[in-house]
From TrEMBL:
GO terms for molecular function: DNA-binding transcription factor activity; transcription cis-regulatory region binding. Keywords: DNA-binding, Plasmid, Transcription, Transcription regulation. CDD domains: HTH_LacI, PBP1_GntR. This is LacI family transcriptional regulator. It comes from the Bacteria. It comes from Rhizobium leguminosarum. Pfam families: LacI (PF00356), Peripla_BP_3 (PF13377).
Amino acid sequence: MDSTVRLSDVAKRAEVGVGTVSRVLNGSAKVSAATRQKVRAIIDELGYVPNEVARSLAANRTRLVAAIIPVIGYTQHAEILQGMADVLHKHDMMLMIGASGYSDQVELQAVKAFLARRPDAIYITGVRHTEAVRTILQQSGIPVVEGSNLTDSPIDAVVGYSNFDASVDLTRLLIARGYRRVWHVTVTKDFNDRIDDRLAGFRWVTSTGTEVEADVIRCENSFDGGAEAVRLALASNINVEALTFATDVMAVGGLLECQRRGINVPEQLAIAGFDDLPIAASTNPSLTTVKVDRVGLGRRAAEIIVNRLQGNHTYSQIVDVGFQVVERDSTRRP
C-alpha cells in the first residue's frame, strides 16, 4: 500500500492550494506569516518530504555538493568536511561524500557517479588526478575545488598548503637543532601527491648543501608501521639521530616502540610527525609535527563554491591556507 505523503495531501489538510504549499517550500515572500506557519505545521505533522529531484530539475540546482576524499575514517579529511558543512548548511546545501581509497580508478568512478546525480559543485582531495578525471571535471560546467595541496594549474580552484614547503621547514628545524643523521619514513602503499611532496621536500633539503646523512624508510601508514620504522633504523649500521614521519599515525607508532625498547626520545632518537592530530600534543613526549587549519581549509573551499554558485567569480583561483611547524618535546634537545 502506497502511504507516501504528497504535496496535495499537505494542501488539503492545510486548506490551501498546491501552489501555496509550493511557495512556502520555496521560501516565497508572497505568503502570509500565518499561512506559512500553518503549512509548516502540517508538513511536520504529516512528515512530508519534498521531491527534491523534481524541484532540482525545475531550478537546475540540487543544493548538493559532492566531496571525494581518500578514506572516510581519517581525522584530517573529517575536519575538512566539517568546515565545508559549517558553511554549506548556512546556505541550505548538503554534502554527499565518496571515498576513492587512494585508487585512480575508484576516483574516476566516484566522479562519474556523482556527476550523474547533478551536484551543484565538487570538492576533491589532492591535485594530481588522471587525465580522464581532469577532463570530465573540466567539462562538467560546475565549480570544482581541489584541496589539501597546491598546484599552479588547478582544474578550477584549489585550497590547500604546500606539503613540500612544510616538509622542508620541518627538516630544517631538525638540522637547526643539531641532528645530522636524519631519516624520513614514508608509506609503502596509498601513495598520493601530499605524501610524495613531503618526501620530495625532505630529499631536497638533505641534498642541498647540508652535511646530513639521510635515507628513506618505507612502512605501512599505521602504528605498527611506525614501530617497524624504528626497528629498521635501530638495526642499521648508522646511528640514526632523528626520524621524520610522513604522518602522525606512524610517528606515534614510533614513539610507542621507543617506549617499549627503553629508548629516550629525543635524547637517543628524535621523532617528528605531520598533521598535528589531537593525539600529538598528548603523547609523552609530546610530538613535533606540522599543523594545518583543516576546518578553515574546508570553510574556504565551501565559500568559493557558494560564491561561484551566486555568480561571484572574483575569488582567487589558488588559496594557500598555510601551515605551522609545531616544535614539541619529541625533538627539543635539553
